[in-house]
Amino acid sequence: MMSSSSNRATLELSNGVKMPAVGLGTWQATSGDMTTAMHEALSLGYRHFDTAILYENERPIGGVLNYWMEQGRIRRDELFVTTKLPPTGMYPGKVEPYLRKSLENLMLDYVDMYLVHCPNGIKRDEENTAVEDTQVDHVAIWKEMEALVDCGLTKAIGISNFSLEQIASLVKNCRIRPMNLQTELHVYFQQKELVEFCHGHGITVVACSPLGSPGLTAFYSGYGVVKNVPNLLELPLLTEMAKRYDRTAAQIMLRHTVQKGVGVIPKSTSPKRMKENLEVLDFELTTEDMEKLSALDMGTSGQITKWESWTWVENDPSGTPSHHAPQEKKRTSTNKSEETSSTSS
Ligand SMILES: NC(=O)c1ccc[n+]([C@@H]2O[C@H](COP(=O)([O-])OP(=O)(O)OC[C@H]3O[C@@H](n4cnc5c(N)ncnc54)[C@H](OP(=O)(O)O)[C@@H]3O)[C@@H](O)[C@H]2O)c1
């Protein structure tokens, strides 16, 4: 499924489209940062961009992509743009309107891939409070996802944060198989069984938070929440290998994932780190080093950015929920459930 002969390796989706194995993640990148970062990323050679309506940055991303296309510096068919159906869209009749809204934000006629962002929905109860809905009818939603391919609004469809059981059930009950799973994956949380299942069913896998999301501690503190996530980039094995290969710890970690045939979408708005993250296709880890890195897997206890409903953000009385830009919207108080909850994007 993976073609990696050059530093432009791709993963082939079941619709025949080739997706660059390294893309740019954009969660937590605010509008201003995003515009500058997009120009830089395109100049560096990024062609695969991952966003979501929840990230509130589709507009700056679309603005820069359209500017480059208008200038004749890039063609639409050279780009691979992914966005996602939010939990509030997990209801019949809401799927196409949400994609149309994203397309309007991105100023595009179609996206290359539309993903169901998470398996659960968010709905409002009698008191108009946002609550998590774990009873979403995945088959009904998937039929509407398939219709988006039929009418050309997206080339590919997939899922994100779904479990093996949820994917297996969808595979049995679909007309168009999911073409991609986006899921948290890094040395501490390698999801070997899930990846094997997907690859065995022609579903490509893209690792989100492929560096272990080291910016999460700061992200939480922007909401006034104290939560320390482990910094995987400082693991002794990674720093030792980085020295030995004359690479950085981030490059070793990304290479380990890509070498297993899984795509990566590291987020960075720093030109230096964006460049570094793209340069992981021109070297190879030995089998022995691959095994050493694979042995760091901690199973589910290694998960860092676990999906949560984000109803606490939806319920924020102080204004429009700003899911991904804490520096623009600081919460003034915390409560127990926030402190104990995990996150995702
Ligand atoms: N589907 C989902 O539910 C879901 C969940 C999580 C993430 N995602 C997607 O996956 C993308 C990546 O995940 P993520 O943003 O959680 O985390 P990540 O890519 O693992 O880590 C990003 C963090 O690492 C820093 N960084 C980037 N490159 C680095 C390098 N070479 N050396 C040192 N630090 C580096 C970034 O800071 P700087 O910007 O300052 O470089 C940022 O703080 C997201 O942006 C989003 O597009 C999707």
From TrEMBL:
InterPro entries: AKR, Aldo/ket_reductase_CS, NAD(P)_OxRdtase_dom_sf, NADP_OxRdtase_dom. Residues 310-345 are annotated as: Disordered. This is 1,5-anhydro-D-fructose reductase-like. It comes from the Eukaryota. Residues 22-296 form the NADP-dependent oxidoreductase domain. Residues 325-339 have a biased composition (Basic and acidic residues). Pfam families: Aldo_ket_red (PF00248). PROSITE patterns: ALDOKETO_REDUCTASE_1, ALDOKETO_REDUCTASE_2, ALDOKETO_REDUCTASE_3. It comes from Nicrophorus vespilloides.
